[in-house]
Write a structure and sequence with these properties.
Layout lengths: L26 H28 L8 E2 L23 H8 L3 E13 L5 E17 L3 E6 L1 H4 L4 E5 L5 E10 L4 E7 L5 H4 L3 E2 L13 E6 L7 E12 L8 E4 L11 E3 L5 E8 L9 E5 L4 H8 L13 E2 L2 E6 L1 H7 L4 E7 L15 E5 L2 E2 L3 H8 L7 E9 L5 E9 L1 E2 L3
Length: 412
Amino acid sequence: MENQYTYYTPEQNRPEPKQRKKREVPRLVKTICFALVFGIVASAAFQASNLAAGKFLKTSGGKDVKEVNTVESTKLSTNTDSKVSSDVAEIAEKVMPSVVSITNMSVQQVQSFFGGVQERENKSVGSGIIIAQNDSELLVITNNHVVQQNQALTVSFIDEESVEAQVKGIDAAKDLAVVAVDLSDIKESTKEKIKVASVGNSDNLKVGEPVVAIGNALGYGQSVTSGIISAMGRQLNGIDAELIQTDAAINPGNSGGALLNANGEVIGINTAKVATDTVEGMGYAIPVTSVGSVIENLMNRETRTKVADGQQGYLGIEGVDVTSDSADMYNMPTGVYIANVTSGGGAKDAGITKGSIITELNGITINSMATLKEQLQYYRAGETVEVTLQTMDAKGNYQKETVEITLGKKPQ
């Protein structure tokens, strides 16, 4: 997945150095020089230790799960304390109970050796952050690409206990997802060891500020890296957000993990890295403050489970992805362009026409056919869903409208 390139500087041919006659240094001079060097080194070490001790400050930790107050609407709690610490070991010790590993079991269709298509079980790993708790669930924020196309999700805590989880909500455009774990499935011994993360303010970050990244790198378990904020307001194709750039190592499996400030507060959700032959140390995270309202919306959605394949609802359209590049080129909204409306799916009965663009399904942002199909897996035939459309008017401008569609039965 990643390309590595190391530059080597070849040795150049140099003329042989001339031999010089050795000159003896008096023993007394040697002794004095040695003592002077020893004194300088000892003094420097003493001063360095004093400087390190002087910089040691306390960090703010997370909250025990049992101490979290539950409310009717789950809120994202933000700590505005500005005191910070530079002790990476203490930050890691306090925050690791708030970071989880996520295992995604999915089924992919692959080309067989004989030209046919066969299904193969695929296992991928990522990370997540315990972000809140409601009356019945522990809520984990992660990336959408960590949980997409899942057949089964497993969350593993710091004590290596694993439980089944469900996707509560996604925002594919911002590559965000909230995963819910039923509190009744978590052992009491595990509840005593895990914590809800403390969330900081990503709007106040400065370039050069130290950061720590924690996540399930390569699926080996939680690991810690550190670095600085390299830049703010970066953009990557496929993510509708201005990102934090960091040189803290972000590797496969770190996706969805925590980027922390020096106070041990979550200020970013690790998402991607640039991996080419000529690039090193360019990782990216979604700043939490800029997507706070999105996260709260996802946390307060109803948790649904996927419907058996034969019972899934059917919209009845043929669609084409409108990517961000296509949207810019043709002045269209991103989403799914309806290329054709078929019978039996409900869209035709609701008056949906060719040329409209689907942008949302029951409040979930739709940016591709893959996202639309995945969301429809949570609804049965006969259920009614709200579809948000962008339709072109007579002047060539797109107008937003919401239509209720009763889903048909998915064709076999």
